[in-house]
């Protein structure tokens, strides 16, 4: 199996100015070919205007076991959300 | 438009459209059989572009011909002697290396040609060239990269690519042949003299083939007969027998 | 559906008491529709079953390129050629998405490809049937993709995140497949007498193999119960088959073609169409390797893989050389 092409993660920015979004993976011998393959595989239906590729092994991810300490503390910070505040209707849109 | 110009224009459009028709057909033969999924998908994209360009070229040819025919009639109901594609594109796929070498040798010509045609005095020709040139720029990038990758890859891939180049090189020259049709097209500003593309072509091809560590054969001998229809290879008849069978076996049907 | 007779690993559904804490927590997540992601803990049997199921699904897409690819070079118009090519290309894409989903479970694409090539893994029985006339291309899109969609739409909600995401993407792309198939066969059904004959022939030949795609009845299977508890199987085979028949019969009638099974009759009491069960001995024969095209299909895949080896190796070697040169220059 040592001759298998490496796996790449593909990120595409769509037409509407949103950030690059992970769309899937593919195999390619190097980064340049990964970009080309991504163009052929993941933009067949006019899905993108920009492509990022990252070799899968270079992605560092959070561990599932850390979900609690990483993400739960923000649940209680409700004051960060605009809906936390009551604004009188007469004031208008804010 | 004068009658003689119309005939020449028709021949020119058939040459453009038959090239893309026959090459698109050849490339589509790979679907489901490529060395790796990513290549399978990429080759299908190339074939789809070429089929789309065929619809435009042959659609315009049908219009110029003025006999009420469609692009499909022209593609499916002519015999081999009426085809005007260069011999290069009807050559069999061979192995993947031969297919990609054929693609590269054609893409290089195609991209230069379309670049010139974008300035055509004929508005429709210029529009088709404008659309096709973007597609072909990508075809060229991809086929050139693959030719370099395989030429400068393993010993085996190198020798297969050299064999493919040796086999196909004698079919390169025909793309730069000129005749009365070309003179008429050049004079009308619709197209250019194919011979005038050779310098750019050689520069591009030499650069890529040198990156691919491949040696261009010394002989400049060129097979010809495709773009005039005088003498195609035996391969074309078999391709047409497959491609045209249904509409010919069941004439007049809608599909 | 493209995954048939997938053997579920393990001994069937465990009760809450039989489960370990980890297993209970895992099942609880599934019950609450929380997706399982690649790095999450999962039972070995869940992982093994998913690899088999996603792998079989992927292989079906790839082998499924062959019967339709059989007609790309004979498509009767430029537009039909482009449509068919784009469709078969999509199958390759779907296979690719699914292989990538399988790879998140710790198996490489090359490894499961080799299991297809040497017969350790299967693909859907339907692709061992031939495409003999142009109307088959319409019928495959309409019936075969139609049957596949029946299964794939609910699988968008499957418990395994990467599988679910692949199915969402596939379903989005797939919707054109069935429609182009029906459109193609409709042209034939409304065409010349010969074209109509082709359409009828295609329908008659592909009807029962399409019903077989859902697999034999599994309503009493303990293995299916486990896969359903894991939400990697959403409906029973019989449910999906009935749904397919109910949806398809009016479409056949609209085409003006004869029903391919004299047993098809509306059953007022059940609110469904009755139909004749396919010949399951034929199905098991096809699964065993005795279908009309098993040998050719596997030979074609093996040839593509073997012939492509020098290309894969060559391009990889070039990438290594290029990286080494870049490194040396720095």
UniProtKB/TrEMBL annotation, chain A:
Domain of life according to the entry: Bacteria
InterPro entries: PaaB (IPR009359), PaaB_sf (IPR038693)
Gene3D superfamilies the UniProt entry points to: Phenylacetic acid degradation B (3.10.20.520)
Entries under NCBIfam families matching the protein: PA_CoA_Oxy2 (TIGR02157)
Protein name stated in the entry: Phenylacetate-CoA oxygenase subunit PaaB
Organism of origin: Actibacterium pelagium
Lineage start: Bacteria, Pseudomonadati, Pseudomonadota, Alphaproteobacteria, Rhodobacterales
Gene: paaB
UniProtKB/TrEMBL annotation, chain B:
SUPFAM superfamilies: Ferritin-like
Cellular component terms per the entry's GO annotation: cytosol
Matches recorded under InterPro entries: Aromatic_CoA_ox/epox, Ferritin-like, Ferritin-like_SF, PaaA_PaaC, PaaC
Record's signal peptide: none
BP terms from Gene Ontology: phenylacetate catabolic process
Name of protein: Phenylacetic acid degradation protein
Gene that this sequence comes from: paaI
TrEMBL record, chain C:
Transmembrane segments: none
GO molecular function: phenylacetyl-CoA 1,2-epoxidase activity
Alphabetized SUPFAM superfamilies for the sequence: Ferritin-like
PANTHER family documented for this protein: 1,2-PHENYLACETYL-COA EPOXIDASE, SUBUNIT A, PHENYLACETIC ACID DEGRADATION PROTEIN PAA
Highest classification ranks of the organism: Bacteria, Pseudomonadati, Pseudomonadota, Alphaproteobacteria, Rhodobacterales
Record GO biological process: phenylacetate catabolic process
Pfam families: PaaA_PaaC (PF05138)
Region (Disordered): 1-24
Protein's recorded name: Phenylacetate-CoA oxygenase subunit PaaA
Lineage top rank: taxon: Bacteria
Any one annotated GO CC term: cytosol
Biased composition (Basic and acidic residues): 15-24
């Amino acid at each position: 199996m040592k001759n298998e092409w490496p796996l790449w993660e593909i990120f595409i920015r769509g037409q509407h100015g949103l950030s690059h979004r992970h769309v899937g993976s593919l195999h390619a011998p190097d980064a340049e070919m990964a970009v080309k393959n991504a163009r052929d595989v993941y933009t067949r239906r006019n899905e993108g205007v920009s492509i990022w590729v990252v070799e899968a092994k270079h992605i560092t991810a959070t561990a599932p076991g850390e979900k609690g300490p990483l993400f739960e503390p923000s649940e209680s910070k409700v004051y960060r959300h605009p809906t936390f505040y009551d604004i009188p209707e007469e004031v208008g849109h804010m | 438009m004068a009658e003689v110009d119309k005939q020449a224009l028709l021949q020119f459009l058939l040459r453009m459209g038959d090239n893309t028709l026959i090459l698109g057909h050849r490339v589509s033969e790979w679907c489901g059989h490529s060395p790796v999924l990513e290549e399978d998908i990429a080759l299908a994209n190339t074939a789809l572009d070429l089929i789309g360009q065929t619809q435009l070229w042959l659609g315009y040819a049908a219009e110029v011909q003025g006999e009420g025919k469609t692009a499909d009639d022209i593609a499916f109901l002519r015999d081999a002697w009426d085809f005007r594609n260069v011999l290069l594109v009807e050559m069999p796929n061979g192995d993947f290396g031969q297919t990609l070498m054929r693609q590269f040798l054609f893409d290089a010509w195609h991209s230069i040609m379309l670049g010139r045609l974008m300035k055509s005095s004929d508005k429709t020709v210029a529009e088709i060239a404008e659309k096709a040139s973007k597609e072909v720029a990508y075809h060229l990038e991809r086929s050139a990269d693959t030719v370099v990758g395989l030429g400068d890859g393993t010993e085996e891939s190198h020798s297969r690519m050299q064999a493919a180049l040796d086999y196909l090189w004698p079919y390169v020259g025909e793309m730069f042949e000129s005749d009365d049709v070309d003179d008429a097209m050049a004079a009308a500003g619709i197209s250019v003299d194919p011979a005038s593309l050779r310098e750019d072509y050689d520069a591009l091809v030499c650069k890529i083939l040198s990156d691919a560590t491949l040696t261009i054969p010394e002989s400049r001998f060129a097979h010809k007969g495709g773009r005039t229809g005088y003498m195609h290879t035996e391969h074309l008849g078999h391709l047409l027998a497959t491609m045209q069978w249904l509409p010919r076996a069941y004439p007049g049907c809608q599909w | 559906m493209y995954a048939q007779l997938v053997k579920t690993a393990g001994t069937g559904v465990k009760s809450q008491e039989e489960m370990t804490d980890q297993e209970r927590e895992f099942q609880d997540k599934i019950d609450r529709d929380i997706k399982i992601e690649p790095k999450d803990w999962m039972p070995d049997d869940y992982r093994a079953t998913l690899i088999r199921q996603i792998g079989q699904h992927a292989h079906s897409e790839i082998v499924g390129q062959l019967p339709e690819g059989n007609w790309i070079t004979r498509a009767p118009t430029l537009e039909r050629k482009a449509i068919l090519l784009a469709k078969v290309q999509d199958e390759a894409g779907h296979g690719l998405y699914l292989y990538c989903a399988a790879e998140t479970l710790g198996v490489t694409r090359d490894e499961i490809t080799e299991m297809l090539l040497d017969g350790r893994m299967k693909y859907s029985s339907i692709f061992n049937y031939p495409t003999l006339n142009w109307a088959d291309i319409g019928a495959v899109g309409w019936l075969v993709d139609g049957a596949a969609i029946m299964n794939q739409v609910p699988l968008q909600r499957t418990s395994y995140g990467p599988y679910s995401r692949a199915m969402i993407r596939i379903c989005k792309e797939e919707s054109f497949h069935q429609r182009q198939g029906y459109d193609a066969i409709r042209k034939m059904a409304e065409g010349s007498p010969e074209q109509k004959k082709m359409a009828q022939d295609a329908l008659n030949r592909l009807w029962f193999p399409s019903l077989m795609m859902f697999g034999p009845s599994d309503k009493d299977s303990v293995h299916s119960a486990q896969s359903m508890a894991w939400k990697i199987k959403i409906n029973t085979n019989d449910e999906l088959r009935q749904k397919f028949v109910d949806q398809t019969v009016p479409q056949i009638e609209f085409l003006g073609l004869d029903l391919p099974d004299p047993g098809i009759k509306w059953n007022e009491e059940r609110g469904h169409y009755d139909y004749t069960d396919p010949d399951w001995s034929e199905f098991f024969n096809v699964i065993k390797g005795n279908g009309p095209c098993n040998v050719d299909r596997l030979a074609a895949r093996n040839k593509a893989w073997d012939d492509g080896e020098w290309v894969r190796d060559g391009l990889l070697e070039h990438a290594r050389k290029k990286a080494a040169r870049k490194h040396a220059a720095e």
